[in-house]
């Protein structure tokens, strides 16, 4: 059965009317670039000056997009989603920490999440950002091809060991690890590290996924090369496909530094490569596990249609659909209702530490105007339906 993304009763059954009204207010505010700019500026200023705004953030944007401040709070949210066969990706959303002590301290936090996930039916994944375990400038240096000093080589070994301990714990616990993609100028060491982890932990089952940002014009080729590499080395490729979240930053840097932008010439080219990438993975499901991370209804429908037409069961173990918590519930809950594997990215962490994540959500919902108006129209449709 193909999913119906219009069914708002299914999409929002887990949200109270009060929560929907808050979402209406939030998405309306974010749809105004001016309001978003003022809100983001004010938040940054208030945080810099230690103005107590945690309460305001917590009860608005944080509750819309995050599972809670602790893993235990996120677990409560995960239990609500479980009732609707929607899975969860635990995402310890703390960003921007630098320093060896902080990086070391993050490892047990992730292993705790893995062990908790293993005790639950609907938490098949955790997600990891390599910048949570390594200095950004170290990644940048490796990416540039410059020679590392002896101290830097030692530092990189520690990064490797941190990620290895996490993947090892996940392998033992039967949990999958999604390694996020970040800025293109640090991506080479992230890809290399992830390939090494896949080679070690994906031989018999899929534990590790790399992320392919299809807004980059070189990623469709890279996806196919990664598949060939996996075949040659005898492991299953974990491929998380997204469009990419750092477009403006990427383009601005390329202009400022005078190199060719790694970003596609336009949205159409990104969409084309995204759908071709998904199709390629679906054609090789024996050796690729695909994670379709998108809020694009057309891409989700295309993928579901392909499965339907080719007799691939909706709950094929190598196919997952995913959207961010607080967004595109019409896709997630309707796909889950039709029997597809769905998991929501559920970030958690202290309010002040997840602010960079929340800022990206605010920005995304401003710049992707079509998506915001879609969210708003669905929320309003559901509020109207409930009133009636
Ligand atoms: C589950 C999940 C996990 C994610 N993980 C990551 C991650 O690890 N790394 C990461 O970078 N992002 C990640 N994202 C964010 C993602 O990359 C997108 O920014 C976001 O999902 C919007 O894309 P879309 O496919 O949902 O929707 P759409 O609205 O169809 O696409 C919007 C996207 O298209 C691209 N785009 C827009 N305009 C243009 C243009 N003019 N030219 C070229 N391309 C254009 C941009 O990537 C933009 O974000 C994740 C998203 C999800 C849902």
Commentary on this structure:
The protein is α/β, with parallel strands linked by helices. Helix 7 crosses helix 9 and helix 12 (267-282) runs parallel beside helix 13. It has helices at 8-11, 17-30, 33-48, 54-65, 71-82, 100-118, 136-144, 150-173, 187-201, 219-233, 247-257, 267-282, 297-309, 329-337, 355-367, 369-387, and strands at 87-92, 125-128, 176-179, 208-213, 237-242, 288-293, 319-324, 342-348. It has one domain (70-355): TIM Barrel (Alpha-Beta Barrel). The chain has an eight-stranded parallel barrel, surrounded by seven helices. Strand 7 (319-324), helix 14 and strand 8 (342-348) form a beta-alpha-beta unit. It starts with 7 loop residues before the first helix and ends with a helix. The structure holds flavin-adenine dinucleotide.
């Amino acid at each position: 059965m193909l999913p119906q993304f219009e069914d708002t009763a299914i999409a929002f059954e887990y949200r109270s009317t009060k929560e929907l009204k808050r979402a209406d207010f939030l998405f309306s505010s974010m749809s105004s670039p001016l309001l978003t700019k003022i809100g983001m500026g004010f938040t940054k200023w208030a945080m810099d000056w230690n103005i107590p705004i945690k309460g305001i953030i917590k009860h608005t944007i944080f509750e819309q997009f995050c599972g809670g401040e602790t893993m235990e709070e996120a677990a409560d949210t995960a239990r609500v989603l479980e009732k609707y066969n929607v899975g969860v990706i635990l995402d310890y959303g703390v960003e921007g920490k630098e320093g060896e002590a902080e990086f070391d301290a993050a490892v047990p936090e992730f292993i705790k999440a893995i062990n908790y996930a293993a005790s639950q039916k609907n938490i098949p994944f955790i997600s990891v950002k390599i910048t949570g375990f390594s200095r950004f400038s170290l990644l940048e240096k490796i990416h540039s091809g410059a020679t590392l000093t002896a101290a830097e080589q030692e530092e990189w070994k520690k990064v490797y060991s941190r990620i290895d301990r996490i993947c090892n714990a996940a392998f033992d616990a039967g949990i999958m690890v999604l390694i996020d993609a970040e800025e293109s100028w640090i991506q080479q060491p992230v890809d290399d590290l992830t390939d090494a982890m896949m080679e070690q932990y994906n031989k018999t089952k899929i534990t590790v996924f790399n992320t392919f940002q299809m807004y980059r014009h070189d990623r469709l080729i890279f996806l196919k090369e990664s598949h060939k590499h996996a075949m040659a080395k005898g492991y299953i490729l974990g491929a998380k496909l997204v469009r990419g979240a750092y477009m403006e930053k990427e383009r601005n840097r390329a202009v400022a530094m005078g190199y060719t932008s790694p970003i596609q010439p336009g949205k159409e080219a990104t969409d084309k490569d995204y759908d071709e990438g998904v199709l390629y993975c679906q054609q090789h499901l024996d050796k690729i596990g695909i994670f379709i991370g998108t809020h694009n209804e057309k891409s989700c429908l295309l993928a579901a249609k392909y499965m339907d037409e080719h007799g691939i069961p909706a709950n094929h173990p190598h196919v997952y659909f995913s959207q961010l918590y607080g967004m595109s519930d019409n896709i997630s809950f309707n796909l889950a209702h039709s029997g597809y594997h769905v998991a929501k990215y559920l970030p958690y962490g202290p309010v002040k530490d997840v602010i960079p994540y929340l800022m990206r959500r605010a920005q995304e919902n401003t710049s992707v105007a079509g998506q915001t108006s879609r969210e708003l129209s669905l929320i309003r449709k559901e509020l109207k339906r409930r009133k009636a």
